[in-house]
Write a structure and sequence with these properties.
Length: 558
């Protein structure tokens, strides 16, 4: 019988980690350029292709022995069994005793999946059909506001995964909006400070604006505060009527009772399963803004891409498994090469929100220090993930990446095809040149970071010391054939599964986020003190008390 990796009885894991640590000590003193010298066919052995995605990790500071031992570690942590548990609907979200069924949102219509408590796939299809009906009504101009005018603008109110996922995806696939013939404009409100909603209230017309309120719990203070502001804005202009609520609000939540209490009519409610994690929810009705933006056919292609990656992750051998390889490389850099930070660098302006999306996905999922069995974690877990569009970042923080004292792992992403014949630009020479310029910069920067002056195209040059590039920064590159709904779906699913693999090796629950709750609760207590000055305060630290006094003392009405 195989030992439980989450108990102290699996003695293989500490031994493998110790061997990996000794191996890392040796590789820390080597240079990535040496690895290419030792293995001229290194790219062949250190890349993986799945569908329209090519993943190149040949410029990581690792060799064949490294990869073999990392795969051995994954097996010792019982990764194949954990993957099977994920896809069986087992309660892999241990602290909430729930399955994580984001992958089920991507199942094709003919594939059935149920748990003991729920006909999961049937419920998903029902909500997808309701999404489709909302999209059809809005695209056909048949969804009218309270005054009878056609809805032209849809505002998604949501924060975290309920806002960032749809925003990132709409931005990435913006070019498919025109192809879908979508007649509605999509806007996003997330910030609690009022900036987002105030700007939109200045721009939009109440008569033609529909709000989507997205919150799994329908109790998120950021979202409900923005929703209240939107409701009052509409009521001041159109009157507080039942028709206003019926024609200007759609709700997306796992709590139909709370939606109804707020005023969302049942026919305007889209339901989530309790097993839907916020940062894994773009595939669910949380993705309604994306479906509105690119059309249901393209949204279904997005789901199909995710499902393709699910099948790959569930069936491919570990050594050829894209999400597994991505995860093990991060574990190697974080735990064994002591590189605590990763910069994510897409060389495509359409993906400008992807670093933020992945930052939430990785850091909220695995930024934890307690294992699934309640013991303190030994060593680092999620790296600090940050980044920006690469061609802008070159003029910002690449100086630190190339010559700074901090070692940062770098993930590059680019698209092979864009602006070619047959596209809406029909091979514009100017735009093709700009695309090629971005690709050239992506390849050049990635090579220089990893190989330094040793891989320079200019050959042996005696650079002055201030111009020398040491290289030896671990680099991975992802190339998409093209940025399509299918390929974006596959890419996001790959990163989701990467996070899950990391959580298995680190023995974490990737699907809860208790660390963000306490601060939000404390904020409500301080809010009461800000808005009701007669209330006494207690149990405040000295700094909070002093800042609160300063805020009160500098208000215009004091």
């Amino acid at each position: 019988m195989q030992a439980d990796p989450h108990s102290s009885t699996n003695t293989d894991i500490p031994e493998i980690r110790e061997v990996l640590s000794r191996h890392a000590t040796r590789l820390k003193s080597s240079h990535i350029s040496q690895l290419f010298y030792l293995n001229p066919e290194r790219f062949r052995d250190f890349h993986c292709s799945v569908g329209g995605i090519l993943f190149d990790f040949s410029r990581q500071r690792m060799d064949e022995q490294t990869l073999s031992m990392l795969l051995e570690l994954a097996v010792a942590c019982d990764l194949p069994t954990e993957v099977a548990r994920l896809f069986s609907g087992a309660p892999v979200n241990t602290t909430e005793n729930r399955p994580a069924l984001h992958w089920a949102q991507r199942l094709p219509p003919e594939q059935e999946f149920s748990t003991a408590d729920e006909p999961v796939s049937r419920n998903i299809r029902e909500q997808l059909d309701r999404m489709g009906e909302i999209v059809r009504l809005l695209h056909d101009g048949k969804w009218k506001g309270a005054t009878g005018r056609r809805i032209t603008d849809v505002v998604n109110i949501g924060v975290g995964g309920s806002g960032l996922g749809p925003l990132m995806s709409c931005r990435a696939l913006d070019e498919f909006s025109e192809a879908s013939g979508s007649p509605v404009n999509i806007h996003f409100v997330a910030g609690m400070d009022g900036t987002d909603i105030a700007e939109l209230m200045d721009q939009l017309h109440p008569e033609t604006t529909l709000f989507i309120i997205s919150s799994k719990s329908f109790s998120t203070i950021d979202t409900l505060t923005n929703a209240r502001t939107a409701r009052h804005w509409l009521e001041r202009r159109l009157g507080a009527t039942d028709m206003l609520l019926r024609r200007h609000f759609v709700g997306v939540s796992a709590k139909p009772g709370r939606m109804s209490s707020w005023g969302i009519h049942p026919e305007n409610q889209l339901l989530l399963g309790e097993w839907t994690g916020g940062r894994f929810s773009i595939w669910s009705p949380i993705g309604l803004p994306l479906a509105l933006h690119i059309g249901m056919d393209n949204f279904r292609a997005f789901l199909d891409g995710g499902h393709m990656m699910d099948q790959h992750f569930a069936t491919a051998p570990l050594a050829d498994n894209l999400p597994v390889l991505m995860a093990l490389i991060t574990i190697w850099n974080t735990n064994f090469l002591d590189i605590p930070s990763t910069a994510f660098l897409p060389y495509d302006g359409r993906l400008d929100k992807l670093p933020d999306y992945l930052q939430q996905l990785e850091m909220e999922s695995n930024g934890k220090s307690t294992t699934r069995n309640g013991t303190p974690v030994q060593g680092r877990t999620a790296p600090v993930l940050w980044g920006a569009v690469g061609h802008n970042a070159q003029h910002a923080f690449f100086q630190l990446l190339h010559q700074g004292t901090e070692m940062v792992a770098c993930d590059f992403l680019a698209c092979v095809h864009r602006f070619e014949r047959g596209s809406r630009w029909n091979g514009s020479a100017d735009l093709l040149h700009q695309h090629h310029l971005a690709l050239a910069n992506c390849l050049s920067q990635a090579g220089l970071l990893a190989l330094g002056d040793r891989g320079s195209l200019s050959g042996e040059v005696a650079w002055p010391i201030h111009q020398q590039h040491p290289g030896n920064r671990p680099v991975s590159c992802v190339l998409l054939d093209e940025l399509s709904p299918f390929n974006l779906g596959a890419l996001l699913a790959a990163y989701e599964h990467k996070v899950f693999v990391q959580s298995v090796v680190w023995n974490l629950d990737a699907f809860d986020q208790w660390g963000v709750e306490r601060g939000k609760k404390g904020a409500l207590d301080i809010l009461a003190l800000l808005e009701h000055e007669h209330l006494p305060w207690s149990n405040l630290d000295a700094s909070t008390e002093a800042l609160l006094r300063h805020i009160r003392g500098n208000r215009p009405d004091t």
